[in-house]
Amino acid sequence: MHENTAAHTAREPYDAVVIGGGASGLSTALVLGRARRKVAVVDAGAPRNTPAAHMQGFLSRDGMPPAELLEVGRAEVARYGVDFIEGEADHIEQVEPGFAVYLAGGPVLRSRHVVLASGLRDDLPDIPGVRDRWGRDVLHCPYCHGYEVRDRAFAVLCTHPNSVNQALLVRQWSDDVVYIPADMPLTADDHERLTARGISIATASAIRQLVTQDDRLSGVELADGSLVPCEVAFLFPHMVPNDGVLDGLGCARNQAGFVITDDAGRTSAPGVWAVGNVCDPRALVISAAGAGAGAAFALNHDLVDAEVAKAVQSAVRPARRAVGVSSIEK
């Protein structure tokens, strides 16, 4: 990736500026670049899945390191003349005929459309050891990592209202699952479902820390001094979308705080799009890439519609003037 300079401010507006260079952003840029659109990708280089050694569930790329996918993707996209700008978008303003994207400490990019593909961040619980083990043997998504840790001893930490459902789900990857309710009492219904699923339930006590041995997770220590042995821990992080640049543009959000889009990725603000985890926290890498491609198709059609309307208007005006002159001369 290379960094372009303030020369951008003097150029013709981009057709689209894509904020975020992950799977969804690169897929958007790839399709638009192949459609011969003028596109820039702004990326800060901090993908959510950086701690993961491998990426799973992506057909033809299963097991590929995340960084390798992005490297290959950037090379593919670059073949179609897409500009890559290393940096972080600070804020966006509406200007005619589209938007001004202000980069932190850098140039201002003019664009007809903006695609936000900046993902989300995982706010982890303040439990000693969690951050150090995150993406290794402390995990969130069983579809991403469950097969690789199958049949090991799992502990599911109650850190979220959906933690019980997470425990019920991961049970299919291991017969040895213990649910740690921490200091949040279980309802009778949740207790019944966990027990019926063959999941053990630890003592209701706050979690003190994770315990490791030889750089591997070995257990969860509780505040009452007891130790729950395990090799893998699952927990639900608090997911926060990286969408601050949309502030002031009037994009509607749902109750969870995520930007609302239609099936193609359009937000409620005309010309502003969102794809991937920034608007869909459940999107896997492959589905985020698909969403980027879908948004690019729709965005290009919107551009074509606008260009046709402008061409028709330009053709009609001279014709009307010519008719007027002819009438006067007669």
Give a nutshell description of this structure.
Helix content is 29%, strand content 24%. It is of the alpha/beta class and 330 residues long.
Q: Would you mind describing this structure in some detail?
A:
- The protein has 2 domains: 6-122 and 238-315, FAD/NAD(P)-binding domain (3-Layer(bba) Sandwich); 125-234, FAD/NAD(P)-binding domain.
- The chain is 29% helix and 24% strand.
- Helix 1 (23-34) runs parallel beside helix 2 (66-78) and helix 1 packs parallel to helix 7.
- With 330 residues, the chain is an alpha/beta fold.
Could you list some keywords that capture this structure?
330 residues; FAD/NAD(P)-binding domain; disordered N terminus; 5-stranded parallel sheet; 17 strands; flavoprotein; thioredoxin-disulfide reductase (NADPH) activity; 7 helices; 2 domains; FAD/NAD-binding_dom; alpha/beta
How would you summarize the topology of this molecule?
Layout: E1 14-19, H1 23-34, E2 39-43, H2 66-78, E3 83-86, E4 89-95, E5 98-103, E6 108-116, E7 120-123, H3 130-133, E8 138-139, H4 142-145, E9 154-157, H5 163-170, E10 177-180, H6 188-196, E11 200-201, E12 207-213, E13 216-222, E14 227-229, E15 232-234, E16 238-241, E17 272-274, H7 285-329
Parallel strand pairs: 1-2, 1-6, 2-3, 6-17, 8-15, 9-10, 9-15, 10-11
Antiparallel strand pairs: 4-5, 5-6, 7-16, 12-13, 13-14
Helix pairs in contact: 1-2, 1-7
Catalytic activity: [thioredoxin]-dithiol + NADP(+) = [thioredoxin]-disulfide + NADPH + H(+)
Keywords: Flavoprotein, Oxidoreductase
Pfam families: Pyr_redox_2 (PF07992)
